Sequence to fold (166 residues):
Amino acid sequence: MKRLVSIAFVLGLTGCTGSGMDDLQAFVAESGRDMQGKIEPLPEVKVYEPFSYAAFDLPDPFKPRKLTTGGGGAGPQPDFNRPKEPLETFSLETLKMVGMLSKRGVAHAVIKTPDNTVYHVRKGNYVGQNYGLITQIGDSEVALREIIQDSAGDWSERNSTLILQE
Fold:
């Protein structure tokens, strides 16, 4: 009996060994039949042409240099020999006009610095880092004439104002 069972088992296994993938193998063989690899030809190599660098006489772009326009310091220049006033250490944008008062008929502006120090200035005083001379003091603003230097070294004047901050 054992023998009969083992023979039946072996016969059952041989019946299961059929590939069952014949259609898949046929599909793979048929689809790969038309495929052929296509390799692009190598690009043509261009001949190297040497370049002669002749810019040694040009100025070095990495060294700072001063632009020259021919003016060479023309225009109104500030007085470098006068003593600096306290408000000239501050940028004009950081100063605030907080008031105006009159002493003996002379108008004074009250200027507040970023460190909350208050100064009284009048016409003729200097304010800001661009040699700003106070030209007029009104009820709501202080008019200044600044002397600034451009990149070519020329000096020019510009008018600025400090407006009353409420």
